[in-house]
Amino acid sequence: MENRERVTETLYREMGIDPKVSAFGAQIEETLKERFAAIDETVEYNQLKVIKAMQESRVEAACFAATSGYGYNDLGREKLEEVYAAAFHTEAALVRPQITCGTHALAVALSGNLRPGDELLSPVGKPYDTLEEVIGIRPSKGSLAEYGVTYRQVDLLPDGGFDYPAIEKALNERTKLVTIQRSKGYQTRPTLSVKRIGELMAFIKERKPDVICMVDNCYGEFVERLEPTDVGADLCVGSLIKNPGGGLAPVGGYIVGKEKYVEQAAYRLISPGLGKEVGASLGVMTSFYQGFFLAPAVTGGALKGAVFAANVYEKLGFSVLPDGRESRHDIIQAVTFGKPEGVIAFCQGIQAAAPVDSYVTPEPWAMPGYDSDVIMAAGAFVQGSSIELSADGPIKPPYAVYFQGGLTWQHAKFGILMSLQKLLEAGLVTL
Ligand SMILES: *Cc1c(COP(=O)(O)O)cnc(C)c1O
């Protein structure tokens, strides 16, 4: 072993990683060279795409100044929205710290564009949990249902395919907006590739050209070279404490797409009449710009971590989704342990590897909105940020853990090795 490798090994020892664990990790990493090279190529493309957008918009130091009050003529805010529109190849963008999270961004895009009597269609099954209350699938105060917007859903076929005949039947004269969730979120269905989303939208537009196609892009940004807006999405929505914030954005969400639909969203977010013209940026602009600049590389690191984890745990005989070889369309990795102790050890390992709060031991807990105890691991600079290395698992069959993020590949790797270390210590795996 070369000296520089030996000093890294020594540090792993000092930080609690058994030699068997790091050797197993090294063996897996050795098999992933081609996968990682392909991820690096995507990062290179997306990095150039973002720099090009920033250059064309003539981003300058004045963009980083804080504004207050109404925020009229906020240069930084206006140019940032130009940059997002350029990178997503859309007419317009709304990128704001006043958008508090991904659910808020989606709620604003939906309620800004739907009117009483309209119908919303999800042709890809049940949307993300928090959207159930936005739509009113679960009765909720202020839901779209309370405003007279109806909802229809077509589930995916058992093999994960689109149920085209049922989608065709579900489209009707009241269908105003179709919402398509790219990521599987915390379900077991496959994540949709941008290509498949494009095919689905083409099918829908052929039958109803005036329908608005919106994509929930959460966890998907920069995973591929194309975004849903490159294949026909009229609106695309996400959170800045996931991929596009690059780990630096302390809050925020984005909505990109056709000018008229983004404008409707702005009137809902701010106020009729005011729209995009107001909204002070309060000093977050540097982190929004710099985070977006870093986002392709950060997403690439998180993706390498997900692929590494899939291969580590698959090799040990656990069921993993996506599997070790599948192509990736988001940064989420699920590992099924089959018993609570596995989920707990995994999450405790992720926590122990964090740069923040590493001394805390997470335990399963009853959480609002969940029907079982949940264990969550996060040692993040930004509270709740899931582009940072994080994991959570409901304590119920099949005892699966969902993990995502990692601001650097090296941290993601350390976290996964530490999770394996905890499983080894608990006697749940043998190496
Ligand atoms: C994260 C996420 C959301 C929004 O979640 P927030 O926690 O409100 O940011 C919506 N849809 C999907 C698929 C997500 O992954």
Could you tell me how far the N terminus lies from the C terminus, measured between alpha carbons in angstroms? 21 Å
SSE run: HHHHEHEHEHEHEEEHHEEHEEEEH
Give every kind of bound small molecule, once each.
pyridoxal-5'-phosphate
Task: Tell me roughly what share of residues is in helical segments.
Answer: 40-55%
Low-confidence stretches: none
Work out the strand percent.
5-15%
Gross geometry: globular
Spatial extent as radius of gyration: 22 Å
Instruction: Give me the number of helical elements.
Output: 12
Kindly state the number of beta strands. Answer: 13
- Largest sheet data: 7 strands, mixed
- Give the mean pLDDT: 96
Strand order of the largest sheet: 1-7-6-5-4-2-3
Computed structural class: alpha/beta
Characterization of the model:
The structure is a single chain. This protein has twelve helices and 13 strands. It is an alpha/beta fold. The strands form two sheets. The protein has a seven-stranded mixed beta sheet with strand order 1-7-6-5-4-2-3, sandwiched between helices. Helix 11 packs across helix 12. The two termini are 21 Å apart. Bound molecules: pyridoxal-5'-phosphate. The site of pyridoxal-5'-phosphate has 12 residues, from helix 5.
